Amino acid sequence: MMSVLIMLLRKMARNYWLVLCLFGGMLLCIALTSSMPIYKNAVLHHMLVLDLERSYERTGDHPGMIAAQFTMQTDDPKAQANVLKRFDAYWSAQIAGSSLLHVAQNQKLVETVRFGLTPADSARVDPNVKRSAKLAMRSGIEDHVRLIDGRLPSAAMANGVYEVMVTDGALGQLGMLLGQEYAIKDPKVKQAIRIKPVAVIAERDLNDPFWGMQDLKNDRNTLFLPDTLFERDFVAERPIVIGKLGGTAIGDYTRFDLDTAAYVLRLKTDLAADMLGSYNYSVSSSVSVPGSEPMAAYGEREKTLRALLWSLNVPLFMLIAFYFFMVTGMLVERQQAEIAVLRSRGASRFHLVLMYAAEFGLLALAAFAIGPWLGVAFTRVLGSTSTFLSFVGRGSMEADMNAESWLYAAGAVLAAWLLSLIPVFVATKQSIVDQKRAKAREGKRPVWQLFALDLVLIAVALYGHYAFRQRMSDLVKLGLDGKSLSADPLLYTIPTMFILGFGLLMIRLYPLFVALVYRMGRRLWAPQYYTALLLVIRRNRIYHGLMLFLILTVGTGIYNANTARTLNVNMEDQIRYAAGSDIVLRQHWENDAPPAASPVTQAAQPAQPPPPDMIHYLEPPFELIESLPGVDTAAKVFTKDDGEAWLGTKSGKVKLVGIDTDAFGRAAWMKDGLTPYPFYDYLNLIASDTHAVLLSQTAADYYGARAGDTLDVGWEGIRPTRLVVYGIIPYFPAFNPNPAAGSQADGGQPRNPMLIVGHLDTIQNELALEPYDVWLKLKPGADRQALLDEMGKRRIQLEKFEDTIGSISESRMDPFRMAINGVMTLGFIISLAVSFLGFMLFWLLSLQGRMLQFGIYRAMGVSFRQLLGMMTLEQLLTTGAGFFIGIATGFAAGRIYVPLFQLSFDPGRIVPPFQVVSDRADVFRLGVSTCIMLAAALVILTWLLKRMKIHQAVKLGED
Fold this sequence. Notes:
Layout: H1 2-14, H2 16-59, E1 65-72, H3 77-96, E2 103-112, E3 115-119, E4 131-138, E5 145-150, E6 162-167, H4 168-173, E7 182-184, E8 194-203, E9 222-224, H5 227-235, E10 242-251, H6 258-276, E11 283-288, H7 292-295, H8 298-334, H9 336-344, H10 349-383, E12 385-387, E13 390-391, H11 403-427, H12 432-440, H13 447-450, H14 453-478, H15 489-520, H16 527-538, H17 541-579, E14 583-587, E15 590-591, E16 617-618, H18 623-626, E17 631-647, E18 650-659, H19 661-667, H20 679-687, E19 692-696, H21 697-703, E20 710-714, E21 721-729, E22 755-759, H22 760-766, E23 773-778, H23 784-793, E24 798-803, H24 804-812, H25 815-849, H26 851-859, H27 864-897, H28 920-947, H29 950-953
Parallel strand pairs: 4-9, 6-8, 18-22, 19-21
Antiparallel strand pairs: 1-10, 1-11, 2-4, 2-10, 3-4, 3-7, 5-8, 7-8, 12-13, 14-23, 14-24, 15-16, 17-18, 17-20, 17-23, 19-22, 20-21
Helix pairs in contact: 2-8, 2-10, 2-11, 2-25, 8-11, 8-15, 8-17, 8-25, 10-11, 10-25, 14-15, 15-16, 15-17, 15-27, 16-27, 17-24, 17-25, 17-27, 25-28, 27-28
C-alpha cells in the first residue's frame, strides 16, 4: 500500500503545476458548495434574531419564552400524580434540557385549590372575615422580587408552621397581618396545617422575562412557599388537591436557528398532547410561545433561499466544471503517450482509470478536508456584502460549520472526482496507433462544430428568454408578482447557455476575421507577425479551449456585475421614489375634532355637543423642523388621497398634492429620465401662477385634459376651487401611476391613480388648512440619530416618521438580496481568479511545449525581440480576442436577460420602470486583470526565452 502511495506521489510531482491547479479547482468547488448551507443557516439565523428582536420591541413579550399552564379537571390522586410525573419528565427533557432552546431561566409553578383560613389568635385578627386562599410555589421567585416588608420565609417548617410570602394586595384581600398564624379549615383538607405570612413582596422588575407568563398582579389570594418545601410536603404528599401546574422557560433567542424555529413551532401545537398523552383530557391547557409568529415564515424562507442559492451558483458550477475539463485535459494530454504505451503493453482501461482515480482521489480527500473551512470564509464574504463589490462589517453574522455543509462537501467531492475522470476515460480508448492517427487528422473540424452546438445553445437560450417573457406578461395581466419565479434555476442558467453558445459562435467565425486581417496586410507584415497570423489561422483549434474559457469567465463576470448592479439600483430607486425624500414626517396638529367614542354605553354617556361642520387645525411651528441638525432642505408637502376633480362632465377621485415649488425641488428625489423634460422645468412652469397645476398623464387621459384647461378641485365637505392645467407629467415623486392590485373602475378595468400637483398656499387659502407632511433632505453624512435626539429635546410630537435611508439599509439586509449580492460578488471575484489561473496555466504549458519551435526560430536568425513580438501578437489575437468577445457577450446577455429580473418585483407596479444598469468600473477591473495576465505571460515568456539554449532545444532525435 505504501509503495502504491509513493508511486502516486512521484507521478503527481512530475506534473505538480497541473496537479496544484486541479487541486485548486476541487478546493474551489467544495468550498463553494459547502458555503451554501453555511450561508443559508447564517443569514436566516441573522434575520430570525432581528425579527425576534423586533417582535420583542413591538409586543414586550420575550421571544425566547415557552410557557405552559395546566388546570386540573380531576381530583383523583392517581391521575394528578401521573400528570405531575409526566410534566416533570417532559419539561426537564424536552424544554429545560433541550440543546435547541438554550434555556437561561427555568421556572416551575404549582398551585393548590383554594381553602378556608381562620386566625389562630382571634383577639388580634378578625375571625369573622371570610378568607379563601391557595398555596403556591414559583421556583426561583426569591431572586426576582423585592421585599416591601418582613423577611424571606424559612426553607423548613418553624415550630410546625409554614412561613409564606404574600403580595400587598393579598394581605388586604385576605385581611391578614404579618407574623400572625392562620390555620387551614376546610372539609377537603384532613391534615392540620398552619401558615404564617412573614414577607410582603412585589416584582423587582416587570420587564424581567421571569414575569412574562404571569406577574403578581392577580395573586391576591396566593400564599407563596419556598419551592423545595412545597415540592416535599405538598407535591409529594399532596395533603391539598393540586389545582394548577405549569412552567416557563426563557431561551436565549440570539442563539436560535432554523432547527430551533421548527422545534418551537412543533411545541406550540403538540406540547400538551406529547407531554400528557391520555391524561391530556384530565387538564385544560394553555401554551404561550410569543416567538412563534415571526418563526412561522422561516420554513418557507429556507426552501426559497436554498433554491435561490442553487440557482445563483449554477453559472459558477458550470465555470468550475469547464475549468476541471480544461486542467484535467491538459494533464491527460501531457501523459497521453504514457497512457498509449501502457495500453499497447496490455493494461486495461479499468486499470488505467483506477490509477488516475486513486491519484485524483488523494486530491479530492485533501480538498474535502480543507474545502468546508474555506466555505466558512466564503460565507463571511457573502454575508459582508452590502451591494455588489461593496463590503461592510457584519460581526453579528455567525458562520459555523454544520453537518449539512459536510454533506454538501461530500457531494461536491464525488462530483468533482467523477468529472475529472471523464477526460481520462476518453483518453484510455486510444492506443499508440490511434494517437498517431488523431495527430495526423488535426485539421478535422471539432465535434461541436459538426453538430452546431453553438447554434443549439443560442436557440435554447433565446427560447428560454421568450418563455420567461410570456410568463412575465401573464403575471402583469393577472396582477400578480413573480417572486415565486425569481428563484427558478433556469433564470440563472439560460444566460450562461447564451454566453457559452455565443462564445462558440464567435470562435467559429473568428478564424475568418483573422484571415481577413492577414490578407489585408499580406504584403506588409513582418516575418514574425506573418508567422503568428498563419499559426492562429491554421492551428486555431489549440486556442479554442483558452478562448472559450476566457469568454465564459469574462462574460459571466460582466453579466453578474450587470445583474447585481441592476437589481440593487432598481430596488433602492423604488424605495427612494416611493418615499420622495430622505425623511418624511408629520407633526401633531392641535385641532377641535371631538374625542373618540368611549366604550361606555350610550345611556351612561353625558350629552355631547354636536361635532363642528369643519375641523380647525393649529399649524405647529415649521421652524422647529427646518432648523434640526443635519437638515439641508425642509419642504411642506400636503397630500389628500381622496380629493376630487371636475372637468366638463367628468369627475373622479384624485390625489391632490400641494407644494412650495422651490423648497420641494430641492428636497424631493426624482430619477433622471422619467419625464420628457427635466423635472425641475415642470416646477418652474407652475411657479409663476398660484393657480397653476400639473396633471399626471393618467388624469390627462381620463379627463381628456390639455394645457390651458381649467379644473374644479376640492374634496368632500369643501367648496372646490378653480385651477389651470399648465403641464402634464408622467411621473412625480411618491406617485405610482400604475393601478394597485384589485382596484377596478366601473367598467371592470383596473383603475389608474390620478394626480394633481398645485401650490400649497392656494390649497390652504382657498380650500382648507389641514396637516401636511414635511420632506427632509439631509446633508451628506448627517447623523439621523442626532436628529431624532434633538426632536426629543425640542419635544416635537410626531404622528408619522419614515426614514428612507433606514429603509434602504434594511433592504440591504434582506437575505435574498444579500444572497444575490454575495454570490454575484463572489462569482465576479472567482471569474477573475479562475481566468487568471487558467490563462497562466495554458500559456506556461504551451510555452514549455514549444521550446523546440522557439529554438529553431532562434537558430534561423530570428532575434529575441522579433520572437517576443510574435508571441505578443499571438496573445493579443487569442487572449485579447477572448477578453473582448467575453465583454461583448456579457453585455449582450445583460441586455437580453437582466430585464427578466423584473420578476423579483411586481412587474405591473414597479416605478421607476425597470432599467438595466452597468458600471464602467467593472469593465475596467476586467481590463486591468487581463493586462496583468498578459504582462505576467510576457514576463514568463521572456524569462523562459532568456534561459533557453539552442543546443538543448535543437538536439538530435527531438521531434
